[in-house]
Amino acid sequence: MLTTSPRENYLSTEVMTATPQKLQLMLIEAAIRSTQLGRQKLQEGKDDEAVEALIHAQQAVGEMLAGLNQEVDLELVKKVAAVYLFVFRMLMEANYEQDEKKLNEVLKVLNVERETWQQVCKQLGSDKAAGHETSANPITSTDDSTPDLPTAGFSLEA
What we know:
Layout: H1 6-17, H2 20-43, H3 47-66, H4 74-97, H5 100-129
Helix pairs in contact: 2-3, 2-5, 3-4, 4-5
């Protein structure tokens, strides 16, 4: 019999009940944590652990790309996709070259993204609380069906 920890249950519930905007923010935060961990492991000379953490960050960015909804505002989606592709490419290069400077650049971009999505979540949350219904952000999926859990062993934890 498989047992799950309270933390795993909480995280699973949080993911399954999150809005598309909150899911995007959670992915960005996972990418940040994994990138920071990868940078730390590089500094400590733990190359294998750094590679693992940076691959996890790449997976998070891949999920961010997969969540883009091209049916709403194609020009905006193209711009956001270009940013995420840049981050993905920089993570790959930093991982291959063990380049801490590239990881710092990735973190700068991801921190701006996090701030943006925090504002989106806050704005949509306050609009709903005030009785104003706001449509979902145009760059994430708005499918209301219950999503499958991420595959390939991806998790939001670093």
